[in-house]
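ok so I'm stuck.
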Amino acid sequence: MNILHIRSNSDTLGIIVSSLCLVHCLATPFLFLANTEFILSEGEHPFWWKSLDFIFLGLSFIAVYKTTQTTSNQKLKYAFWICWSLLFAIVLNEKLHLVHLVEEIIYVVAILLVSLHFYNQKYCRCNNKKCCTN
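replied:
not stuck anymore, here's the structure
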C-alpha cells in the first residue's frame, strides 16, 4: 500500500471527524433546547448522543496517529498530539465536571485540528517514501 495514500486518507479522516465533532458540539445546545421537555422528563441526554463524543475521540485518535506516523513535518506531530490531548481533556472534563471551562474552547480545538489536517494534507506531502518516515 502506498504511504502517500495512507497519509492522505488519515488527513481526510481527520478533517471529516474533526468537522463532525465541531458540528456535534455546535448542534448540541440547539437540539437540546428544542427538546427541553424530553430532557426534563428523562433527566439526561440520550446515551447514543453522549457516546458520539467518545466515537469522535476514537476516530480522531486514529487519524492523528496515522497522520503523525507519515507527516514530513516534525513540529506538526507535536501540534497534532497537543490538540488531540486538549480535545480529550476537554471532553473528559465535560463528562466528569471537574473544572468549569467556557464552552467555546472545544470549538477552538476542533477547528485547530481540522486546520492542522488541511495544512498537513496540502504542504507536508512527500515525493518519496523516505521523507515520510522517521
